[in-house]
Amino acid sequence: MSSSIRAFSLGALRRQWLSKVNRFIYRVTMNPNPKASPAFTSQTITLPHLPELYKANFLDLLLPPPAEDPVASIKNATPVPENPMISALDNISNEVRTENNAPALRSTKSPLLDAFHRPAAHHDPFRISEIFEKAWKEDPEFTLRIIFYLRSIHDGKSDRKLFYRAWSWLYYKHPRTAIGNLHKLVEPLCERKLRKGDERNLPGMPHGYWKDLLNILCLVATNRLGQEDHYNLGSGKSITNPRGIPHRKQRQNVRYQDLCKKLSDDPKFRALYVAVARLFVDQIASDASLRDQLEKTTDREVRSALQWRISLAGKWGPTPGRSHDRITNISTAIAQLLHASRESQSWIYPSSLSGFDHTGPLSVEQARTLRSFLQRWFLAPLRAQSQCPEPFMSANMWSSINYSRVPSVCMSNNSEKFLKHDSERFSRFMFDVSIGKKTISGATLLPHEILMRLLEYDKDLESVNMQKAETEDGVDRLKKKFFETQIAVASAQWSTLIDRLKQSGSIDNAIAVCDVSGSMGILNDYTNRKTPEPIFPAIAMSMLLATLAKPPFNNGFITFSADPQYLRLSELSGIVKNARKMGEANWSMNTDLRKVFTGLLLPLAKKHNLKKEDMIKRIFVFSDMQFDESRRESYYSGRPQSEPWETTYDIIKKDYEEAGYDVPEIIYWDLGKADTVEVHAEREGVAMMKGFSAGMMKVFLGEQEDKEDAMLVDVDEKEEDGFVVVGEAKAKEEAITPIGIMRKAVMKKSFDGLVVLD
């Protein structure tokens, strides 16, 4: 190597080494611990002056109420005249076929039921707007309930992305209503059912969580609320954009200017901003007061009651300088408002803020001091009180984590880290869970998420060399322990989910029909848990139903094929083996739903001469709803317009009536992305559900217990000699309908209090 080349190489290495050293020196001297101190954030942390921030009537000031009652104006509107010919044409245009050529319908003919059943997170904004616009014109109060039902973790669909899409429509069309009801998202409104014998009066559970408020605020601030998802495919522009610190500072400045402009020019956004800040301040102040009471008492029962009343606002409160605050500066607004209410509290602020009276904007130093105070004296203590695992994890204090208090999602995401850094304690905790000594969180997870994790880790466990794992202290033994622990965590979370559902009741005389056809996907694709193939929720929901059903209807399901079969699940086999058994069921390249009834159930009934009362009363169909055609192709290909359009359900009903039996109630549970329905809104004996949440099944739980405890009755009464004589009570059992089940789902007490404001 020549001397010049050697000198060049040494010079390059020297410059590279000095660059790293200089960066390290700068990091240590100028910003000793940026992750621990919000004071060192590079963002602009001030805000324009927001006088409405300190006023309880901010919504009326920024978005004045309408002159007339918005609900009355819609209900008193002149109905649109109808014409029989136009109605007939509408019926024809409502006819559609599934992907497999079975007759179906585009709409339920009820705007409200369409809003309840048809929206999906992948729909474009125009489609979402079209659905909810029609529903709002029919009944705005009911539509508002449906929107919050989409988000409800415990009483609804638990579909966060779909809720954001629906709420975005509400925000842009009816901003007073959208903003004025945000508090219902985080208040403990969902009933917390306890085990028998537990007499504690515990607070309820919220529909969403506090992070929803910050997510919505960030999406509106960046003009992305309700917009379609776009994926970065590596365009030329993105490749040639400058990188590094200068580009990041430029983006921060542009973002800050956009934020200030929206706060100044957009009253909707200003009202949303103030609402989110005030909600956090009210709850953080309340929680801080409860925490002070906790420190003053040693009574065990009092402390337990106080701890249950402390919310998770402190946990999800925006950390200064972190993700949500970088985009919105919301920490500054929260810190300002807490400082403004200091006179009614026992908080002692630094003397440097004694002269600040909130009649003008903050200076940079004032904002920095207030934000540091928020982090040090509010967020950190509340997070410590709620025993959030994240601060302990980041501080490498793994032995301080209370695993019984770890939320379900956090447990799913971090059980690997718990095992790695705190193996002995975590293994002991999982053993205590297995024997019922301790509990693990899991009731808020979606069933298919747990199932997919179980399938993934079971497959990984099969790849381990068991002989080496048993005899050698090496990698295989570590892998075996890790995968077994992960399976134990997921299995315990599944048990927790089942226990929570059983507290709402059981299901009587019902069985699942599980679609495991090719269009549903395959069980090997278990890594994409956010947008899973329909086969995973179908199997998970079928297994849930099989567990919740009363004997002898429990632990069984019917396959969905040209040759349907009834299969039993073994409690001893475990979740994974039962799931694989269901997924491997023969479907004969066919998804003819009619065959379940005419090829299996009806022939059995005729063969054994079963009575009507001995037939299965209710069947849950878990499918993507893309059924195969149930009749000869020539019938439909040449169907005259005078012939009625018969869906799969219509044909099944005729088959049962011809055999002299009542058709069972059918619950169509749609797990796919196609936009078709089976029946109209008022069709008796049918219900329609769509989604992956186990909480949606609560609408069918405990029905028999309700009938026994409080039966709906018609009372015959007459008056004789001034006395009322009560006749015999008559049981009144109404047939289910799609719209009836919808009303039962969204008319729950937890959705009371939602108010239409514009």
TrEMBL record:
Residues 509-746 form the DUF7788 domain. It comes from the Eukaryota. It holds the Pfam family DUF7788. Residues 98-232, 247-507 form the DUF2828 domain. This is TROVE domain-containing protein. It comes from Arthrobotrys musiformis.
